[in-house]
Each structure stands twice: as structure tokens, then as C-alpha cells.
Amino acid sequence: MIPLKNPDESSLDESLVIATSHGCRPGCGACCIAPSITSAIAGMPEGKPAGTACIHLTQDQLCGIFKQPGRPKVCSDFEFDPSVCGTCREEALEGLNWLEEATGSVSAMNDGVLRFI
């Protein structure tokens, strides 16, 4: 499990996690910033490096191409999960940055290699 701000806490209080119809936290956008994406994205034919916001990240920090045909498979396969996303945007960025560093790509999670840490 990704360490939270309180390392003595063994599980997340899921009542603190508010999800949208996207299945993600409003105003977060961590999954559109932290991971590298090696597949082509509309407007980003070479994908994007880790730590760079996708050009489709909206001002309200949501995916602008959510559920659209051109969305990369790695993005479509990624799902909001409190054990990865934590309880706030900062924890999500911290956790996804750690996964990116540890695996070279967050896509390893979607292949079942690192489903839960």
C-alpha cells in the first residue's frame, strides 16, 4: 500500500474519497500528470513524459477525452482506486510518481503486475 500522510494508518477511510462519474476525485488530475504515456495521444503523437500534464487535462483537472475513441488504452484501463489515489490530490501525485519511478510506467499496474502495493 502507498504510504499515506499518517504512516500508522492501515487503511483509507473511504468516506473521505469523493468520486465523480469519471470514477475519480474532482480537481485531482494526477493520473493525467504523473505517469509517462508511451502510446500516441490525439495532439501528442509521441505520448507524454512523466510529470507533464496531458494536453487533454481540463481546467477542472479532469480528462477531456474520457470515454472517447482516441483515448490511450493505458488511460482507459486505469481506474480510480483509493489504495493508489489516496485521500487527496497530493497523495495521488505522490503515489503515482512513486509507481512511475519504481516501474518505469504506471501501465504495469494495469497489467496486474502492481495492482496493489
Output the helix-strand order: HHHH
Average of per-residue pLDDT values? 76
User: Could you give the count of β-strands?
Assistant: 0
List unreliable stretches of 5+ residues.
Answer: 1-18, 106-117
Percent range of helical residues: 10-25%
Number of distinct helices: 4
Any descriptors?
117 residues; mainly alpha; 4 helices; 24% helix; 0% strand; disordered N terminus; disordered C terminus
Task: Describe what you observe in this structure.
The protein is mostly helical and 117 residues long. It has one domain (15-110). The protein is built from four helices and no strands. The longest helix has 15 residues, at 89-103. The radius of gyration is 14 Å and the shape is globular.
